[in-house]
């Protein structure tokens, strides 16, 4: 029983950063912007979070720093693609490349240093209830934040007027513009929200998942988050489901390696990436579903005419 | 409070299309100077070590050519993809598979020697890269799966596969347990161009030939026209009878084959055996090279040399100043950023507008209308 609980807990820990980053990107893409820089913003969040936590000794300050660093880094993308109307694919890629380089440089002095870890929630009495106690009341704070974030984004996108406006911009920026909606302003806010989420996800990696700094520690999670958004066909609750499936694959292959299954570890390690491809194929086979949900102006640059 | 406003130019500016890479380079230099100053190094001294010293002697120019060759080879292939608005960003994986396929002969059949070995290896390398690139192309055409994500995921898979090969079945039994294959025999090593002067090998020649060939194709042949039409207006392309699926396969196989050729050239020329890591991110840096070279094969040759210099400079500042060689990655990333930003100037004029300023725009608008 304890083993099952432990496995479930580790799956949640592996799924949380994917969920947070993907939910952020979902909002960005719903506004019609494709930010391929998730991996870069995530790794910047990770190094910023670790650094601030390490220097101040407070994981909470680290977490705050991760969010701020992610948001600032995404601002770079926003200025380029929204104010200068650059190609979103290329700009997103350069954000990732720059993030990987910059984080490696900043993090040189952090390698091998002991980090600080966000403490798990612990409520006297409740957290020690067998089985469900630790699952519901004993996880790291970001687990709860990630679930709350998903619910909040669902409510925002589908139950509020602003959310509706955001979605309409994603579907047709010219119509939205013609109606007098400040397309660029909405998109700026969406991109910065996505950056803050990616930064927070990175902070989870270096403050909860493995509280230390390792170069390239995001290991493609930013890209998997991007794939999750497609997999979820831009629906928040499906992002949640997808993140947990991927968390399970990630943890499953780690456990398989630990149990000494006679398959080379490299093959097991490549499972999450292969699973991403398989899942993308399965979901995009259904053309109608994808066509129906893809924000129609996704990735198109928009220059308001006067 | 100021605000940027873009004003569309009536036609693309020829001036800025030439100037933009240079402006971008200048801006990167300024940002780089700030970066070095923040790191507590005199920027002038750092620039000297980073950009001048690594190319001040003949043997160093050979090192530059070694680094530039894979970048140019990969980037000219990618430029065709990007021109067609098809996004292969998994060249790093295709590079690795090219290296692996090409190494089949020297690793598994080391007794096979002679003048045929090298051409076969190069051919196999291209086949390997092309086959690996065919996966995202197939998934895109059959299931309309996003090629950006699939080609990228395959990079991680390729890296792990290579890691398994050199630690497992292909490991040199006499290698004292090091994760590497046997050293390639003499007939499997790409010859150096001028062995007396430096290490540069035939890979650089391949890169130049590929650049010229692709330039001819893009500017003088129907295929190139097709690529450009598909990229700028897929609808017009469909009316002209150009097949989209064919175009996806063509661009992916071409760029995959060139990345594969770069991979086996690197393994057989610069390294001489397979190791767990055979590329310092060439496949990704080549994306920057492609854009810095304005997606033009001849521009890419120049851009490849510049980006190769950032690698050498990164190594130089690491050994001379103790700065992480990741600084090279930062320079590369900044350069791409500035290039993309400056490209805006080709199509738009940028105006700074004070938010409080009154809008007197009727007159110029009338003029534009005429």
Automatic annotation (TrEMBL), chain A:
<keyword id="KW-1133">Transmembrane helix</keyword>
<feature type="transmembrane region" description="Helical">
    <location>
        <begin position="141"/>
        <end position="158"/>
    </location>
</feature>
<protein>
    <submittedName>
        <fullName>ABC transporter permease</fullName>
    </submittedName>
</protein>
<dbReference type="GO" id="GO:0005886">
    <property type="term" value="C:plasma membrane"/>
</dbReference>
<keyword id="KW-0472">Membrane</keyword>
<feature type="transmembrane region" description="Helical">
    <location>
        <begin position="60"/>
        <end position="82"/>
    </location>
</feature>
<keyword id="KW-0812">Transmembrane</keyword>
<feature type="transmembrane region" description="Helical">
    <location>
        <begin position="188"/>
        <end position="210"/>
    </location>
</feature>
<dbReference type="GO" id="GO:0022857">
    <property type="term" value="F:transmembrane transporter activity"/>
</dbReference>
<dbReference type="InterPro" id="IPR001851">
    <property type="entry name" value="ABC_transp_permease"/>
</dbReference>
<feature type="transmembrane region" description="Helical">
    <location>
        <begin position="89"/>
        <end position="111"/>
    </location>
</feature>
<feature type="transmembrane region" description="Helical">
    <location>
        <begin position="267"/>
        <end position="283"/>
    </location>
</feature>
<feature type="transmembrane region" description="Helical">
    <location>
        <begin position="241"/>
        <end position="261"/>
    </location>
</feature>
<keyword id="KW-1003">Cell membrane</keyword>
<dbReference type="Pfam" id="PF02653">
    <property type="entry name" value="BPD_transp_2"/>
</dbReference>
<feature type="transmembrane region" description="Helical">
    <location>
        <begin position="33"/>
        <end position="54"/>
    </location>
</feature>
<feature type="transmembrane region" description="Helical">
    <location>
        <begin position="216"/>
        <end position="234"/>
    </location>
</feature>
<feature type="transmembrane region" description="Helical">
    <location>
        <begin position="6"/>
        <end position="28"/>
    </location>
</feature>
UniProtKB/TrEMBL annotation, chain B:
<feature type="transmembrane region" description="Helical">
    <location>
        <begin position="239"/>
        <end position="264"/>
    </location>
</feature>
<dbReference type="Pfam" id="PF02653">
    <property type="entry name" value="BPD_transp_2"/>
</dbReference>
<feature type="transmembrane region" description="Helical">
    <location>
        <begin position="284"/>
        <end position="309"/>
    </location>
</feature>
<keyword id="KW-0472">Membrane</keyword>
<feature type="transmembrane region" description="Helical">
    <location>
        <begin position="200"/>
        <end position="218"/>
    </location>
</feature>
<dbReference type="InterPro" id="IPR001851">
    <property type="entry name" value="ABC_transp_permease"/>
</dbReference>
<dbReference type="GO" id="GO:0022857">
    <property type="term" value="F:transmembrane transporter activity"/>
</dbReference>
<keyword id="KW-0812">Transmembrane</keyword>
<feature type="transmembrane region" description="Helical">
    <location>
        <begin position="330"/>
        <end position="350"/>
    </location>
</feature>
<feature type="transmembrane region" description="Helical">
    <location>
        <begin position="21"/>
        <end position="44"/>
    </location>
</feature>
<feature type="transmembrane region" description="Helical">
    <location>
        <begin position="118"/>
        <end position="139"/>
    </location>
</feature>
<feature type="transmembrane region" description="Helical">
    <location>
        <begin position="94"/>
        <end position="112"/>
    </location>
</feature>
<feature type="transmembrane region" description="Helical">
    <location>
        <begin position="148"/>
        <end position="166"/>
    </location>
</feature>
<keyword id="KW-1133">Transmembrane helix</keyword>
<dbReference type="GO" id="GO:0005886">
    <property type="term" value="C:plasma membrane"/>
</dbReference>
<feature type="transmembrane region" description="Helical">
    <location>
        <begin position="64"/>
        <end position="82"/>
    </location>
</feature>
<protein>
    <submittedName>
        <fullName>ABC transporter permease</fullName>
    </submittedName>
</protein>
<keyword id="KW-1003">Cell membrane</keyword>
